[in-house]
Automatic annotation (TrEMBL):
The protein's required cofactors: Zn(2+)
Organism for this UniProt entry: Ferrimonas pelagia
Domain Peptidase M1 membrane alanine aminopeptidase: 227-437
Domain Peptidase M1 alanyl aminopeptidase C-terminal, residue spans: 550-866
Sequence ranges assigned to domain Peptidase M1 alanyl aminopeptidase Ig-like fold in this UniProt record: 445-544
Protein name (record): Aminopeptidase N
Record-annotated Aminopeptidase N-like N-terminal domain positions: 86-187
Keyword Nucleus tagged: no
CDD domains for this protein: M1_APN
InterPro entries: Aminopeptidase_N-like_N (IPR045357), Aminopeptidase_N-like_N_sf (IPR042097), PepN_Ig-like_sf (IPR038438), Peptidase_M1 (IPR001930), Peptidase_M1_dom (IPR014782), Peptidase_M1_pepN (IPR012779), Peptidase_M1_pepN_C (IPR024601), Peptidase_M1_pepN_C_sf (IPR037144)
Pfam families: DUF3458, DUF3458_C, Peptidase_M1, Peptidase_M1_N
Catalyzed reactions: Release of an N-terminal amino acid, Xaa-|-Yaa- from a peptide, amide or arylamide. Xaa is preferably Ala, but may be most amino acids including Pro (slow action). When a terminal hydrophobic residue is followed by a prolyl residue, the two may be released as an intact Xaa-Pro dipeptide
Keywords from the UniProt entry: Aminopeptidase, Hydrolase, Metal-binding, Metalloprotease, Protease, Zinc
EC annotation from Swiss-Prot or TrEMBL: 3.4.11.2
Amino acid sequence: MQDMQAKLRADYRPADHTIGSVDLLFRLEEHGTQVIAVSQVKRQNPAATQLVLDGDQLQCIGVAINGEALAADRFEVGENGMIIQADLAEFELTVETWLDPANNTALEGLYKSGGAYCTQCEAEGFRRITYFLDRPDVLARYSTRIEADKALYPYLLSNGNKVASGDLADGRHFAQWQDPFPKPSYLFALVAGDFDVLRDRYTTVSGREVALELFVDKGNLSRGQHAMDSLKLSMQWDEQRFGLEYDLDIYMIVAVDFFNMGAMENKGLNVFNSKAVLADPQTATDDEYHRIESIIGHEYFHNWTGNRVTCRDWFQLSLKEGLTVFRDQEFSSDVGSEVVNRILAVKTMRNHQFAEDAGPMAHPIRPDKVIEMNNFYTVTVYDKGAEVIRMLHTLLGEARFQAGMRLYFERHDGQAVTCDDFVAAMADASGVDLTQFSLWYSQSGTPVVEVSESYDPVAQRYRLTLKQHTPATPDQAQKRPLHIPVALQLLNQQGQDLPLLIDRKAVAPVLDLTGSEQSWEFEQIAGPVVLSLFDNFSAPVKVMQPQSESDLALLIAHAKNDFVRWDASQRLLAQQIFAMVEEEQTQLSMTVVDALRAVVLNDGLDPALAAEILTLPAEAALAQEKAGLDVESLHLARKAALTQLGLELEDELSARYRACIQPEYQQTGAAVGERALKNACLLLLAHGGKANSEQLCLKQYHTANNMTDRLAALNALNQGALPGAADCMLAFEQQWRDDALVMDKWFVQVATAANTDVLTHIKQAMAHPAFDMANPNRVRALIGAFASLNRNGFHAPDGSGYRFLTDQLIALNGINPQCAARIMTPLMALKEVDGERRTLMTVELERLASLPDLSKDLYEKVSKSLG
Ligand code: ARG
Ligand code: ZN
C-alpha cells in the first residue's frame, strides 16, 4: 500500500541531522547495481535519538555506524524509509543497497534508457538509490565512484570534476568524481554509457576556461550543434544580463531517449530528453529549434537560480522554477523576437494554466498541500510563477529588479530558502512595498478584471473603472484583492497614443489596481478613446471588456505595440466565434475578414507577427474564456471561421504564400518568420478546401527541403481533411519509420487529424514498431496529444475518448505513474462540459479510483476530480 497522506507546507521543520559529505560507490553489473553510501552525519537537534531516512522501493543490504554493522534491533526498514537508533552527535553512516535499473520503468532514481544508465532524482528520486535525508534543505558535498564494464559503458559521468579514473580487472573500469559545491540530493546525477561526444569550450567573462561536452547517441553528432550553440549563447547572456558566471571547469549535457520531462539541471551534468537536444533541418521544426534553445537556457540558468540558491522545501518549487522560466523567457526574447516569445508565453497561460486554475487541481504558485510532488511540476508553478516574477519586474523596473537579484545572491548563496526570502530581497533592494503583492504566492485561481469606461466630451475627461474578483477554487473559498499591475494605452481614433494625464501630471503607463474597485480620470482627452489594457499581458488575469469590432480592428491595424495588435486580433476572433456558437451570426463579419485581409496584405508587418495574428485562438483557450459552450458547437464554429477565411482571402493568402517562399533553407529569425507566415497562409487555404489549395499542400509536402515545411503541409492536409492526406501520411511513415523522435510528429498527426474514426487510427498506430508504452515521448505524442489537443475527438459524445484514455492510464499506472498522471489532465475538465459528458467522465474516474494498485500520482488527481 502506498502512503496517500498529504504533506502540508505548514508542517515544515528543519531536519534533525545534517550530512556534511557523502561518498557514493556504484557498481553497475548486468543483473543489478550495488550502491554503497558513506555519509558524515551531524546531529542538529540535540534531542534527536533516531536518524530517520527516506527510502523508496529499495533493497537494503546492510547498515553500519562508524564502520560497525548494525544489529537488527538498531534499525527498522519500512515502506517509506528507515529509522536508525543513533544517540550520537556525529557519526559515519554506511548504507548498502541493491537496485534493479533495467526494470525501473518509472524513470525515477537510477534507470536504463536504451543501453545507458542514467538518473532522475528531482523531486524525490534519490531515495530510490539509497536511504538518505532526501530533502532539498540538506546540502552535502558529493564524491562519486562508478565502476562498470569498459566496453559497454566507456563513459562514466557524475557531478563536478573527474578526479581519477582507470582500469579494473575483468574488462571493467572506474571513474571518480568530486563536486566542490554542497548540493541537495535532487541535483545528484550519474550517467554511464557509450556516446558520441560533441566538445567545445567557453571562456567566461572573468577568463575561466570551461570545457563543454554534449553526449548523444552514436551517429547523432550532427544533430547536437544547435544545442551546443544554444549553451554558449546562454552562458554569454547570463553574464551580460544578470552578471552571473559559470562556476565549474566542466559543463556536461547528456541526451537520453527515456525521460519523463524536458530536462534536468543536475550540477555540472544536465540530463536531457533527446527531444530537447537533437535537431537538424531535415528532422526538426523551427518550433523545436526554438524549444531546444529555451530548454538549454533554462537548465543552464538553474545553475544560479536553483543550484547555488535552492529551495528549502518542495512547496517552494516556484522559487527556482518560476524565476528560471522568467529568465529563459527573457533570454529567448533578447536573442530572438520579443513579441513572438511573449505571445508564446501568453498562449501557455490561456490554453493551459487558466484551465488548471478552473479545475480540481487549482493551487497557488506556492502550494500548501501535496500528496505526490511530481504532480506539482505544473503550468501554475512554472508559468504562472514566471508571470509573478514578470509582474515584480514590471513594478520595479530592470535596474531595481537586478538590484534585488544581487541582494538575493548576496544573502542566500549556498542556502536553501523560501519564496518569502526572495520577495524580501526584492522589497529591501528596491524600497517597494510588496506586502499585498506577495498574496500572488498564496492565492490560487485566475482573477477576473471587469472594465467600464465613460467619456465626458465637455470636460474632455475619460474615466476608467476596474473591478477585480477571483472566483473561489476547490482549495480556497475566500479570495482577497491582489496587487495587479495594469499596463495600458489610450489611443485616439487614428490609432495614435494619447498622453496620460491625471491632476495635470503625466502618469506612468502602468496603473496599480489594488482594491476591489478603482477609478482613474484622465484629462485633456480631446475625443473618444480606444482603450488598450494589459499590454504585453501585464498580469495573469482574465479581462471582461466589451469592445466594439471597429475598435479592435483599429488596434490590429494601428497599435504601435505589436503585442496589442495580436491580442486585439485574438479577442476579435474570439467574440465572433462565440457569436457563431450562440447562433447570433452564421459567419465572421466583414469587419473581421477585412481586418485579417489587411494583415495578409501588409508587407510592412513582421511576418512572424502576421502568422500569429492569422492563427485562431485554440479551442482550449476559447473554452476557458466563456464557460458553458458546447464542445461540438465550439469546434464547428471555429472550423467554419477557418473555412470562411480560407475562401474569402484565397487570392491574398495565395499571393502572400508565394511571396514567402525562399530559395534556400536558413535557420535565422527572418527565415523562420517567413516560413511561419507561409505556413499560416497554407493552413487557412487548406481549410478553404479548394482543389488548388490541396495541390499547394501536396507540392509543398513533396518538395520541402526541411521538416518545418514538410510537417506544416502534412498538418494542413490533415486539418483540412483533404483527400491527399492519407498518401502523405503513408509517405511520411515510410520515410521516417526507423527514427522514433521524428515518428512522434507522425503520432501527433494521427492523434489530432480531423477525421471521425480517429480512435481506430490511434489504436493501429499503437501497434507500430516505433511505438512503445514505456517511452514517455511516444505516449505523449499519441495518447497525450489526442486527449489534450484533439478536444472534439476526446470529448466524443459517446464517451469513447474518455474510455480510451482511461484504458491507457490503467496500463501506464503499472509502468510509469508520473507519465500517466501527466496525460490524465484532460479527464479532470468536468466543469468544462455538459451533464452527459460529465457523467461519462465520472464513470471513468471511478474506474480509476477503484484500481487496487493505484499510484499516488493518479490517486491525487483522481480523488480531487471526484471530490
Ligand atoms: N527541474 C527540472 C526543470 O524544470 C524539472 C524536473 C522535474 N522532474 C520531475 N520528475 N518532476 O528543468
Ligand atoms: Zn526548471
